[in-house]
Amino acid sequence: MKKFTRQELKNHNKRLILQTIYQSSRSSRAEVARQTGLTRTTVSDLVAELIKEHLVVEQGYGPSAGGTPPMMIEVMDSARQMIGIDLANDEFRGGLLDMRGHVSELTKLPLKNRRGEEAIQLMYDLIDRLLKKADSPILGIGIGSPGVLDARNGIVRIAVNLGWVNLPLSDRLRERYQQPVYVANDSHIAAFGEFTFGSKPPGRNLAVLKVGRGISAGIVINGRIYYGDTFGAGEIGHVVVDRGGKLCSCGKRGCLETVASTRAIVSLCQQIIQEQPELFPNSVLSNPENMETSDVLEAFEMGNAAVAEIIRNAGSYLGYALSFLIATLNIVDIRIAGSLARFGDPLLDTIRETVHECTLSTLVRDTHIELASLGQNIVLQGAGAIVLSNELKLV
Amino acid sequence: MKKFTRQELKNHNKRLILQTIYQSSRSSRAEVARQTGLTRTTVSDLVAELIKEHLVVEQGYGPSAGGTPPMMIEVMDSARQMIGIDLANDEFRGGLLDMRGHVSELTKLPLKNRRGEEAIQLMYDLIDRLLKKADSPILGIGIGSPGVLDARNGIVRIAVNLGWVNLPLSDRLRERYQQPVYVANDSHIAAFGEFTFGSKPPGRNLAVLKVGRGISAGIVINGRIYYGDTFGAGEIGHVVVDRGGKLCSCGKRGCLETVASTRAIVSLCQQIIQEQPELFPNSVLSNPENMETSDVLEAFEMGNAAVAEIIRNAGSYLGYALSFLIATLNIVDIRIAGSLARFGDPLLDTIRETVHECTLSTLVRDTHIELASLGQNIVLQGAGAIVLSNELKLV
Fold first, then answer.
1. Cβ-defined contact of A9 to B6 (cutoff 8 Å)
2. How far apart (Å, rounded) are the C-alpha atoms in residues A48 and A70?
3. I need a labelling partner for A358 at 20 to 30 A (CA). Which of A75, A124, B139, B347 fits?
4. How far is B6 from chain A (nearest CA, A)?
């Protein structure tokens, strides 16, 4: 608990009104008063302030309830912009987002093995470009980064790929740009992006399993990112699902990532390409060591049975790991994101099958496992969402 | 978000002051003002009200900081009482609790296979007896029940043992006693009891794994019970840890409960008693079908190697299931409760070993797995804690 002052009370109710208008898309002052329980006078005074701040606009008349038709008000989605950045494996991606999460000025800068300060400079370059293109006041900068992040203090504890160790990323960016900065792990932030700007979950909880080179889950509890005690929540890529199995980069054997990450899947396909060359696209045959997930997908779509088996196997392990997550969290809305999500329904079906096999029927009955509604921009949209949530309390 | 009124603002700050005094055990008005950030006048006015309500008392003078020694204030722990009830398998247990969770008037009524209305009458009987013994105003009644509970509406969805289906337990009790009533699943409530009245966790999160006839975890996130979307959070007794293993009562094979519940352990011991009768207590030998956990414990303490192996095996499966919980939640304070906890350090050691084997080292490094600090009254103390938390916001 924290103390509450009268000024905070006023700000609180103003945010409440803005949130109410935002969530109903279009409303009238009377409707807002009804929904919030605040008096009409309070609503009118605070709406006037919001209009002055260009956050809310009057927009025509609504249907009459007998008397004068009410003036309708809405949040001006373009009134503020957020900068969302995804420090992805191969490229840094960034965009300007409006208050509904629509991305404009999508910009990608290839990483080309830059590390340390060079990688930081590339990120500055990306943000500089986006700031120049902004045409509304900027609410802040959000960053989704791989690795272990201290989201409270904006410190990258370790991002192996980028060569960052204990990097005070928020401080550096705040100093340079004089803007609010929010930093979080890319999986955590992806889940919050899906929660905020994706198709609406039935409740206030959501889990997003991100499967690409790495595997981890982002968890939203009661409308907020759940980070865990040391910012490691959802790190299920290294749970052991195949005891005594393949050696993992983490030093253990049989981790989920050794059987279900795109890296593991590509490596399995490289092993079978000799046996069934006819079912792989020509582009890979000459150069199997450069095989990528998209090549595997092409072979999969061409009907390669061995590849289908590999994907089924991966889906089954993912389902097994999810059965523990579902039993622990009892979150009924689970979504799959990341590059493996491109395998679509066949992958989903195997995941669901194993979850049904391995989870208490009363728990699984209400649980829905779907593909994430946001696509490749899920992390940068999440990065924008975290700015919006913190700065305007709209989410 | 909800609207905030001036009356709510005052109540909020009053609760904040009470909480601050409660948590610091003993304080002065000046110290409370410093800690809360409220003005001295506000603190003095609201403390005066709390003294009038007999929640706070003045208690001697503190050390002088130069001037007049300050008058010290504390929460009067016996000012209010809660009734805490544990609807355990064999007996209904209840007690009166003071505001620090100390139990008086502990009362146990054997269930003797009562079901349905008869079980309800037994619960009424228990509460009637406790109410008669109360010597302070009662804050409310808390109930920990086995089965699936809708804690929000106080409805027992299903408690197989008691023959209750969709029983509006809170409504029934509220009608009868005209008191605030809180009902939750016994594992959820045990975790909240440990969080509130047990040894203090380092943060605001805690997971308690309760292992008895059934197995489930109670999860406290940010100081509140985490129920999950359909009140099934922590139901890990039926995750599959031994694929293709023994048939479970839930219809699946190899659930955690088939290898690590006390029921499973007793059944395994019954199978080996023929081979090694000399290492079982005489009391069981004549009557192995009535073997209980306490008999297994006795054989274990007598050094029965086969029993030790059974316990090690159970511990290893519990550790395996916990590795998923730790990877999902990243809660660093994990405690073991329930009757299996009586096997103490040898059990803990196996659990920890498997957790270390199966969990990412950076996650497990900061994680501590211990026995719960509360004992057999953990559920009824949790039932009291949930009343205290809701009625006085002290937790």
1. yes
2. 15
3. B347
4. 8
What is the spatial distance between Cα A250 and Cα B356, in angstroms, rounded to a whole number?
A: 13
Checking if the pLDDT of A345 tops 80, the result is yes
Distance CA B191, CA B338 (A): 11
Q: How far from chain centre, in Å, is Cα A92? A: 15
In chain A, alpha helices (H): 6-24, 29-36, 40-52, 116-133, 169-177, 186-197, 256-260, 262-272, 282-285, 293-301, 305-329, 344-358, 361-364, 378-392
Question: Which ipTM score applies to this complex?
Answer: 0.93
Nearest-CB residue to B232 (from A9, A235, A330) = A330
Distance set, CA B380 to CA B103, B135, B225, B263 (Å): 9, 19, 15, 23
Taking only the tens place, the pLDDT of each residue in B49-59 is 999 999 999 98
Cβ neighbourhood burial of B84 (10 Å; 0-12, 13-18, 19+)? buried
CB-based contact A140:A83 (threshold 8 Å): yes
Contacts with A182 (C-beta within 8 Å, 6 or more apart), sequence order: A140, A141, A142, A143, A151, A154, A170, A383, A386, A387, A390
List B240's β-bridge partners, or say none: B255
Q: Which residues of A touch B12 (CB under 8 A)?
A: 1, 4
Strands of the sheet with A368-371, listed across from one edge: A224-225, A215-221, A206-211, A333-337, A368-371
The model's pTM is 0.93
| A228 interaction partners in chain B (CB closer than 8 Å) | 205, 329-331
Cα–Cα distance for residue pair B123/A262, rounded to 1 Å: 56
